Predict the 3D structure of the following.
Amino acid sequence: MRVLVVEDEPFLASALRSGLRREAMAADVAHDGDDALERLAVHAYDVVVLDRDLPGVHGDDVCRHVAATLPGCRILMLTAAGGLRDRVAGLELGADDYLVKPFDFPELVARLRALGRRTTPAQPPVLDRAGLRVEPHRMQAYRDGRFLPLTRKEFAVLTLLMRADGGVVPAEYLLEKAWDEHADPFTNAVRITICTLRRKLGDPPVLHTVTGVGYYLGPAAR
């Protein structure tokens, strides 16, 4: 999942980015509304974690823009304005969810994952394919009952491939969704992660490459 955190308080923004990355999410940070709009114009985010009281372009205006122009992007308002009228106003602006500060980080993560599931066709909470079992909420993966000791990036890539349900996933899409904005578009990070993931998945091979196109999970190479 690719997440944009829009928060003007530097410590909280940094803590959120670090925490979300530990949950195998690609997280970027914008500290004001103008920066948020610039990043939204460049990157395809699944969810925006949005403070309302932002310098520059107000958070409400950012929310209106996302709701009107980016139908595949979900909005979670994360703000200290917790009154009933505030919550209703935020949802009516186009937010998909509303969480009041202070908050519990596990709840934020659970809400983000729930919103992320809305950006694609309905997916089960546990993914099964080709002898693989992935439990996104627990960040655990198994092959034929054997636990797979995956890094966060390997887990993120495997989850994206599992959600494709056998379809070929381009390397560019994996880079966009599993890495943050600092990833070099010409990097070998995807290829290296695929190689280590393939080794950990073991034999017989289930992770295959379609040269010049991308990668898919299945019982046999095409």
Remarks:
- The first strand starts at residue 2 and ends at 6.
- The two ends are 28 Å apart (CA to CA).
- The chain is about 40% helix and 20% strand.
